[in-house]
């Protein structure tokens, strides 16, 4: 991101609107923030060029796609396994939706989506086949309390 870029309150409002609905029209956003559609487009383009906005995405209903089981998995690795190596390990597992290095005992925290618990078990077994992975600890999500991605 460009450190010289000045982000004002209108830019923040535009970003917040796009976070809520990436498909909102520039006219609709402009109506809410008091700008014309071309002025909103110029600001969005500037925010994209500066790396403030890094992309747009669709949020989907995982249940509708047959991935009704969500789990958070603590990943424990051997020795001084680097973040790059952990990324290599988890990138090959399509069920891993998000992966983070974290503080605490675990080396990484993964968000995993599977079709059912048997699929989750197979996914965990696949993770553990990598020599760098010592163990996993899982928490299965029962319900989502706040809306999110």
UniProtKB/TrEMBL annotation:
One of its GO terms (molecular function) is sequence-specific DNA binding. The keyword Cytoplasm does not apply. InterPro entries: AsnC-type_HTH_dom (IPR000485), Dimeric_a/b-barrel (IPR011008), Tscrpt_reg_AsnC-like (IPR019888), Tscrpt_reg_AsnC/Lrp_C (IPR019887), Tscrpt_reg_HTH_AsnC-type_CS (IPR019885), WH-like_DNA-bd_sf (IPR036388), WH_DNA-bd_sf (IPR036390). Keywords: DNA-binding, Transcription, Transcription regulation. GO terms for biological process: response to amino acid. It holds the Pfam family AsnC_trans_reg. GO terms for cellular component: cytosol. Residues 7-68 form the HTH asnC-type domain. SUPFAM superfamilies: Dimeric alpha+beta barrel, Winged helix' DNA-binding domain. This is Lrp/AsnC family transcriptional regulator. It comes from Antrihabitans cavernicola. The lineage of its organism: Bacteria, Bacillati, Actinomycetota, Actinomycetes, Mycobacteriales.
């Amino acid at each position: 991101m460009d450190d010289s870029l000045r982000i004002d309150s209108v830019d923040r409002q535009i970003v917040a609107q796009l976070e809520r609905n990436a498909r909102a029209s520039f006219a609709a956003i402009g109506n809410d923030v008091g700008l014309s559609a071309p002025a909103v487009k110029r600001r969005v383009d500037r925010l994209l060029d500066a790396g403030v906005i890094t992309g747009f995405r669709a949020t989907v209903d995982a249940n509708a796609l047959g991935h009704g089981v969500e789990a958070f998995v603590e990943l424990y690795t051997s020795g001084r396994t680097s973040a790059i190596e952990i990324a290599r390990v988890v990138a090959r597992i399509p069920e891993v939706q998000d992966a983070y290095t974290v503080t605490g005992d675990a080396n990484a925290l993964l968000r995993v989506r599977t079709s059912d618990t048997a699929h989750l078990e197979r996914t965990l077994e696949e993770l553990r086949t990598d020599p760098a992975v010592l163990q996993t600890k899982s928490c299965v999500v029962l319900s989502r309390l706040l809306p999110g991605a």
